[in-house]
Write a structure and sequence with these properties.
alpha+beta, five-stranded mixed beta sheet, 8 helices, about 350 residues, about 20% helix, globular, 24 strands
Length: about 350
C-alpha cells in the first residue's frame, strides 16, 4: 500500500515541478508589436504570417499590409503594439508573394529568444529628446530569393537574425478568402503597374541598370571595425552621431561614450554629426553614400585594422571632409554631397 501511494503521487509531483519551471515564472512580459518591410526594388504582398510566443499569443501579418515597398530596413509598416505586456516571440512564420520575381515564398523559423530578450531589456536615451526609450517593434524584412531579416526597433535598430524561406505555390482554389483580390486580373494590372509600383524615377533607373543582385541584401550585413572621430573642433560630451546602415541597423552615439568604440559595425548609408560651437550654435553635418562606393573604401583596409570614420571639419569655412583612416592608412571618401548647416 505504501509503494502504491508513492506511485500515484509521482505523476502529480512531476506536474507540480513542471508548472513551477523557473523559466516560466521569471520570463518577463513586454509591450511589443510587429512590422513588415521590403526593398523598393523588390515589392512584396504578405499572404499570411505571425510572430508567436510560447503562450500561443500571435502577432499576425496578412494582406491588410498591402504592397510593401518602403525600402530595406525602415520605415516599416506596422499595426500597432500589444495592449498589455506579453512574452516575447519564440517563432516567426511568413508566407508572401514577391512581385518582381512572380514567386511565392514560405517559411517557419525558431527565433533567438535570448538575443531578443537581451535587446528588449536595454533602455537608451534619445540624444535628441533626452528621454528614455524602450525597444517596441520587431520588424520582418522580406527580400528576393526568400531572404528574411528580423530587426528590433526602438532607441536603435538592431539586427536579430536572418532566415531562408523556400518557394511555394498558392492557387486561387486553395487561397484564403482575404487574399482573393490577388487573383483578380484588374487588381494586378493596377497594383503592379511599374510606374505606380516603383515610381517613374526608380523604374527608369531599374530599366537602365537592372534590378539589384538579390544577394546584396545579405552582403549588407558584412561588418567592419570602425568608429567615429572628429578633427577640427573640440568635441564635447553632448556632441553625437546618428547613423543608419545599409543592413537596416541604426544608432545614436555620443562622441565620448564607450559605445562609439563598439566594433564592428555595418557600412553606414546615412550619417549626421551634431555639435555645438563655443558660441553655442548647433551644427549638423549630413552625408549619404552609395553602397558600392563605401564598400570599396572599407575594403582598402585589412580585416584586423581598426578604422576611424573621420569628420575633418573646417569651422571657419563651414566645410568638412571625410576620411577612413587606420594606424597606417588614410583614404579620402568621395562620391557624396556633404551638407553642413547651422540650426
Amino acid at each position: 500500500m505504501r509503494h502504491r501511494t508513492l506511485f500515484i503521487l509521482a505523476p502529480l509531483l512531476l506536474i507540480i515541478i513542471k508548472s513551477c519551471d523557473p523559466s516560466d515564472v521569471r520570463e518577463k512580459k513586454y509591450v511589443w508589436g510587429g512590422a513588415a518591410v521590403a526593398p523598393k526594388e523588390y515589392p512584396v504582398e504578405i499572404y499570411e504570417g505571425a510572430l508567436v510566443n510560447r503562450d500561443g499569443y500571435s502577432y499576425n501579418f496578412g494582406p491588410i499590409y498591402g504592397v510593401l515597398r518602403q525600402g530595406w530596413g525602415y520605415p516599416a509598416k506596422g499595426m500597432g503594439i500589444t495592449d498589455d505586456p506579453v512574452k516575447l516571440p519564440d517563432q516567426l512564420k511568413m508566407t508572401w508573394y514577391s512581385v518582381q520575381e512572380q514567386q511565392f515564398y514560405t517559411g517557419r523559423w525558431k527565433l533567438d529568444k535570448n538575443l531578443i530578450t537581451k535587446v528588449w531589456k536595454e533602455v537608451a536615451i534619445n540624444l535628441r529628446t533626452k528621454s528614455k526609450e524602450n525597444f517596441k517593434t520587431l520588424i520582418v524584412g522580406m527580400a528576393p530569393r526568400g531572404q528574411v531579416t528580423l530587426w528590433g526597433e526602438g532607441p536603435a535598430q538592431v539586427l536579430l537574425g536572418t532566415f531562408q524561406a523556400h518557394d511555394t505555390i498558392i492557387s486561387q482554389k486553395d487561397a484564403n478568402p482575404d487574399f482573393e483580390h490577388f487573383f483578380r486580373k484588374e487588381y494586378r494590372n493596377a497594383a503592379y503597374d511599374p510606374y505606380k509600383l516603383y515610381g517613374p524615377e526608380l523604374y527608369s533607373k531599374l530599366q537602365k541598370a537592372g534590378w539589384p543582385d538579390p544577394k546584396i541584401y545579405l552582403d549588407f550585413n558584412k561588418k567592419y571595425p570602425w568608429k567615429f572621430a572628429i578633427e577640427g573642433i573640440e568635441a564635447s560630451e553632448d556632441d553625437y552621431f546618428f547613423y543608419s546602415s545599409f543592413n537596416g541597423e541604426r544608432a545614436q552615439v555620443l562622441n565620448t561614450r564607450e559605445i562609439n568604440n563598439t566594433l564592428p559595425k555595418a557600412a553606414p548609408e546615412h550619417i549626421y554629426a551634431c555639435w555645438q560651437d563655443p558660441q553655442h550654435n548647433q551644427w549638423v553635418a549630413t552625408i549619404r553614400f552609395t553602397y558600392d562606393e563605401i564598400k570599396s573604401s572599407f575594403e582598402h583596409f585589412g580585416s584586423s585594422e581598426k578604422i576611424e570614420f573621420l569628420f575633418k571639419i573646417d569651422k571657419n569655412a563651414g566645410q568638412f571632409t571625410i576620411y577612413l583612416q587606420s594606424k597606417n592608412k588614410k583614404i579620402k571618401l568621395t562620391g557624396y554631397e556633404p551638407e553642413l548647416v547651422r540650426t
